[in-house]
Amino acid sequence: MAASTSTGQQSAQQAVTPQLRQWIIAQAQAGCRPEDVLAAMQAAGWNEDVAIRALEDTLAQHLASPSAAAPAPTPVAPARTTQVARRAEPEPQATAVPEPSLAGEPTVLWAGDRQVQVLMTSKLPRVVVFGGFLSDEECDQLVALASPRMARSETVVNLTGGSEVNDVRTSDGMFFQRAENELCDRIERRIATLVNWPVENGEGLQVLHYRPGAQYEPHYDYFDPSHPGTATILARGGQRVGTLVMYLNTPEAGGGTTFPDAGLYVAPRKGNAVFFSYDRPHSATRTLHGGAPVIAGEKWVATKWMRQGEFI
Ligand SMILES: O=C(O)CCC(=O)C(=O)O
Ligand SMILES: [Fe+2]
After folding, report:
1. What top-level class would CATH report for the domain 108-307?
2. Ligand 1 centre and the CA of 216: distance in Å?
3. For the chain, where do the domains classified as CATH 2.60.120.620 start and end?
4. Is 240's C-beta closer than 6 angstroms to any atom of ligand 1?
5. pLDDT (tens digit, 9 = 90+) per residue, 122-155?
């Protein structure tokens, strides 16, 4: 499978329709900032780099068109005809990655303000499962802070009047800014201490909510170096090199995190977390992973992505 980004397989199904392009233009004309439009698309289940490319392509194409000055949204061409030249990409070089201090095989680690259990490790893919990373109260508080913002994002997207944006969504999501509140700041510092990676290199926490039947198709979290839009994304701190998925509740059944190349299934337990790192944006890291369908109950997770450099 080709390397892809946070919703790799999903992105294959995420066709950028004329209706979506029209909606993007309408948002821009209504004075919405591109970052808010991007956040709304992500909350509706759009893969981050698919959404960024859709935004960039649509707005660039629109500005270049004679109708750009017209006050009302204008239909745009249904398909992009520009061919982007592709060349064979060399296999990327390995880079430094976050890594917990596991020399001596400790059963617990001190994460600055809390003791965390080491429950399972794997070398390839590099995976470490932690127990008790968050307290029950922290999980509940994160869900409470995230919930209203998910609802608001959905309303914005519903303005499209079309179903294209929502059809691909299998979970709802939102992003916090880094250190947006005391709780995020505390959790971000704990992560940085646990995996020995600067807090500045972290993206803001993402919260996802899966209802019964919802899932996250297997994907890679790194950005595909062969995508034309990746250069723009990498300008904000380089590649992603590590992920921590924190379980904010315990679904009744299903909803684990799967690593299909390794045959691994991490059961979702409230407060636990699964860490994995990838030293190259390449499938050789075997970090293909997904959120298995929720069979009963619902599932809430918070995800922290770590970049090579400072995330700005
Ligand atoms: O929900 C899960 O178990 C996985 C989430 C995930 O892969 C992500 O947020 O990138
Ligand atoms: Fe992921």
Report:
1. mainly beta
2. 7
3. 108-307
4. no
5. 999 999 999 999 999 999 999 999 999 985 344 3
